[in-house]
User: Which sequence fits this backbone?
């Protein structure tokens, strides 16, 4: 494995379930870590049996929601309600660099694998805990899924239009946002351990991840007292040239926020006179005449399709993107060229990492997603060889 896999040689124990926790360890594995997934002896990770539209795969314990972040790992099935299961778990942690888990604190205390116990037994361990609300506070032991946290953090209330009311984002963005935040924290903790030689405890909150994703809205509210309003497809910048506009067919999203960008837009649309028009020449004037400007932009865009306009506008220096469905986005030349989607050795296509290190073309899982306990014997034999 090349130097572009910086976590090569690290052992990560994945005691997680559903989406956020498993995604964190999946990202660490893509970067070279050896990830061992610890699952319930009875049913494994519950997400194996739900999520996605492939009901047959879910019934077989290999749902698309599980496959999304299951690749590259080995699986051992343990019963942590038994002395033997806990003993095996501690054997794994004794060798591990990182533990990723997303159980409520009360569950960890009941199993005697809480952060205080683990820090005493395994001082080298970086223990990354992802929970809905984080440690401390009245909701410390409250469970929560992406949809709950979208509601709790204010994101859902700010999404949609005045007519629609609050709307959930169309994908579990807080699950994956929390996974990325946790991965970032693990990297920071590993860097610290390199100098101190000691592990640490990482407390990751889904709620605070949601709030972090709304940072500019938070600052604006705290400074002005103006709570975010549902603005539909209008940009947060509130610039008259920023938002979604219908074309002859399709929709184009414009991000015209700077003076230079407005000039580029005027030139690209063949309306150079806008640059000197007193109604539009300056930002403040454009705001006063926002409705008139929007109508003129729409009239010009109606002359071509969004498919035609996108390359014209982008080449002219206008931040612009055609509204695409997910299939269209995945089929785009840009995504294809970057190699964001990779296939495991059993032919399952999965998303990987949104970044590259050292010029690597793409990150690919080292193995297919395991079935529950698929590597139990292999891992048990390895533990016994110590």
Assistant:
């Amino acid at each position: 494995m090349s130097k572009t896999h910086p976590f090569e040689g690290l052992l990560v124990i994945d005691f997680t379930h559903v989406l956020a926790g498993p995604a964190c360890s999946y990202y660490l594995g893509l970067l070279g870590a050896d990830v061992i997934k610890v699952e319930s002896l009875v049913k494994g990770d519950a997400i194996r049996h739900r999520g996605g539209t492939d009901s047959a795969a879910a019934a077989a314990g290999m749902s698309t929601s599980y496959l999304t972040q299951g690749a590259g790992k080995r699986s051992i099935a343990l019963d942590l309600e038994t002395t033997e299961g806990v003993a095996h778990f501690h054997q794994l942690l004794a060798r591990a660099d990182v533990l990723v888990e997303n159980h409520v604190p009360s569950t960890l205390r009941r199993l005697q694998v809480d952060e205080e116990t683990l820090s005493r037994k395994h001082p080298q361990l970086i223990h990354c805990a992802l929970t809905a609300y984080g440690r401390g506070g009245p909701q410390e032991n409250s469970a929560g899924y992406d949809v709950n946290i979208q509601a709790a953090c204010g994101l859902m209330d700010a999404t949609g239009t005045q007519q629609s009311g609050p709307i959930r984002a169309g994908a579990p963005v807080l699950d994956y946002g929390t996974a990325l935040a946790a991965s970032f924290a693990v990297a920071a903790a590993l860097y610290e351990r390199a100098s101190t030689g000691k592990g640490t405890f990482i407390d990751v909150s889904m709620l605070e991840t949601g709030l972090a994703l709304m940072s500019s809205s938070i600052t604006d509210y705290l400074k002005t007292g103006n709570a975010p309003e549902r603005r539909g497809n209008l940009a947060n910048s509130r610039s008259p040239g920023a938002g979604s506009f219908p074309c002859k067919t399709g929709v184009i999203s414009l991000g015209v926020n700077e003076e230079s960008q407005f000039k580029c837009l005027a030139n690209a649309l063949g309306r150079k006179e806008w640059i000197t028009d007193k109604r539009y020449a300056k930002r403040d004037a454009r705001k006063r005449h926002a409705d008139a400007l929007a109508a003129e932009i729409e009239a010009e865009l109606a002359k071509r399709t969004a498919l035609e306009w996108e390359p014209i506008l982008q080449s002219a220096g206008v931040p612009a993107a055609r509204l695409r469905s997910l299939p269209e986005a995945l089929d785009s030349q840009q995504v294809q060229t970057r190699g964001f989607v990779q296939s495991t050795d059993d032919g399952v296509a999965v998303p990987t990492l949104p970044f590259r290190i050292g010029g690597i073309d793409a990150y690919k899982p080292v193995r297919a997603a395991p079935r529950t306990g698929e590597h139990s014997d292999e891992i048990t034999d390895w533990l016994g060889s110590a």
